[in-house]
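Pilot study result, target chain (177 residues):
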Amino acid sequence: MTEVIKEREVVDSPPTKIKIPVKTGHGEERVIELKLRSRVTEIVDIVAAERGCRVEELVLIRDGDDEPLTSIVLIEADYPHKRRHHVHLAGDVEVTVYYQAGQDTRRFRRSATVEDVLTWAIAVFKVDPSMASEFELTRHGQKEELPGTEHIGHLAGAQRDLALDLVRGDIANGSCA
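Predicted structure:
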């Protein structure tokens, strides 16, 4: 009796886990790996356990979304896992912007960006529209420009308020040194 052995076809199995970029604070970013069919809010479970806080104290926002993600969102093969996710404390941040001799304050969602606050500040302080592109925000009393895409919640950290300065940035004058 002769045995016939057929060559097995090698089939790549679909991934069972997905890697998701997660930002948990200013300068704090990492990748969290979740199993398919798990809740996206497991990210919040992980961060809450690490911080020693309750899950209810945190929210999860995905880049491009206005509302926090909830536990009904499952990780599927087509989940937009390449978009950065942000873990913030729940609640708003009271942002005070200082400009020249004035200041103004407004509450923002933690997922609001520096660019959102800059747009508001330029309007509030009636900056000439032809000069608006020359302005930027810095932390109050500091000189380093804040990236426009940074979330206010990451800058505020555990605080409920944030102080920023509206400043005119460096302007290239086109001369050669």
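One observation from the pilot: Residues 111 and 151 are 5 Å apart (CA to CA). A full batch analysis is planned for the follow-on phase.
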